[in-house]
């Protein structure tokens, strides 16, 4: 750091030395001081240079496969064939922190499809669901993190489950909000363990959630709401660079 003082006498240069800061941010501070017989003025100017954060974009594809399970309340789990489910999302990784391999992922709900529970996709106690019974799954949110190095997946999944029995009965939506994870998910009465991404992108995502009562006495009584539900999904996740 250097400073220069102007006065009636000849200028006397001087230098002040300080230790170099260890921070990434580099601050340059310039002090100028001027004096005269009539007035004294002082001007300080500070200029700061910071590094910009670079990001890299990715495309993430999600597919569900056979051999899945869904469970609710005290009933045995349903055998669920989720083959055909799919979705496309975008991922972002901040490059300024290479130690953090998490990819921030958000799926486009317009492309996200989860097969409904019907007689052709679901079995209960080894038997197909009755033909008139149908449970549609309408996603509301699907986002979270994927670590490509460790294979760990944590995706928040929010969806409406719509129960119907032909044209005779349609229940209000059941809202399910859970984290589909490759780790272990544990509730009060239910628990399940997932499986991390392998080299082929295959994984098992699991989640336990609490389902609150709805404005329907029949459904509340039949399911014993509030209660817990369980999801156990075999999936394939592929990630490619968009740049």
Q: Radius of gyration in whole Å, from Cα?
A: 30 Å
Number of strands: 20
Average pLDDT figure? 83
What's the order of the H and E elements? EEEEEEEEEEEEEEEEEEEHE
Low-confidence stretches: 1-9, 14-53
Largest sheet: 13 strands, antiparallel
Termini distance? 43 Å
Ordered list of secondary-structure elements with their pairings:
Blueprint lengths: L1 E2 L1 E2 L7 E2 L10 E10 L4 E10 L5 E10 L3 E5 L5 E3 L5 E9 L7 E6 L14 E3 L2 E2 L4 E15 L5 E13 L3 E2 L3 E8 L2 E3 L4 E3 L8 E10 L5 H7 L3 E15 L2
Short structural summary:
The protein has 243 residues and is mainly beta.
Describe the structure.
With 243 residues, the protein is an all-beta fold. 3% of the residues lie in helices and 55% in strands. It is built from one helix and 20 strands. The protein has one helix spanning 217-223; strands spanning 2-3, 5-6, 14-15, 26-35, 40-49, 55-64, 68-72, 78-80, 86-94, 102-107, 122-124, 127-128, 133-147, 153-165, 169-170, 174-181, 184-186, 191-193, 202-211, 227-241. The strands form four sheets. Strands 6, 7, 8, 9, 10, 11, 12, 13, 14, 15, 16, 19 and 20 form a 13-stranded antiparallel beta sheet that branches.
């Amino acid at each position: 750091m250097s400073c220069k003082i102007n006065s009636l006498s000849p200028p006397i240069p001087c230098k002040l030395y300080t230790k170099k800061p260890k921070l990434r941010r580099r601050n340059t501070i310039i002090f100028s001081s001027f004096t005269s017989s009539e007035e004294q003025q002082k001007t300080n100017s500070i200029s700061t240079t910071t590094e910009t954060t670079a990001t890299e974009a990715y495309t993430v594809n999600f597919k569900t496969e056979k051999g899945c399970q869904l469970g609710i309340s005290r009933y045995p789990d349903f055998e669920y064939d989720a083959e055909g489910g799919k979705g496309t999302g975008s991922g972002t990784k901040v490059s300024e922190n290479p130690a953090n391999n998490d990819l921030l992922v958000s799926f486009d709900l317009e492309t996200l499809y989860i097969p409904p529970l019907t007689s052709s996709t679901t079995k209960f106690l080894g038997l197909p669901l009755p033909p008139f019974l149908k449970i549609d799954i309408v996603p509301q949110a699907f986002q979270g993190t994927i670590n490509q190095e460790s294979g760990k997946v944590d995706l928040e999944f929010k969806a409406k489950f719509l129960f119907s029995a032909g044209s005779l009965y349609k229940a209000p939506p059941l809202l399910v909000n859970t984290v589909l994870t490759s780790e272990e998910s544990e509730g009060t009465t239910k628990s399940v363990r997932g499986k991390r991404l392998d080299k082929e992108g295959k994984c098992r995502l699991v989640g336990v959630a609490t389902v609150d009562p709805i404005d329907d006495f029949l459904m509340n009584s039949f399911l014993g709401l509030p209660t817990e539900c369980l999801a156990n999904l075999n999936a394939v996740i592929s990630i490619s660079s968009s740049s």
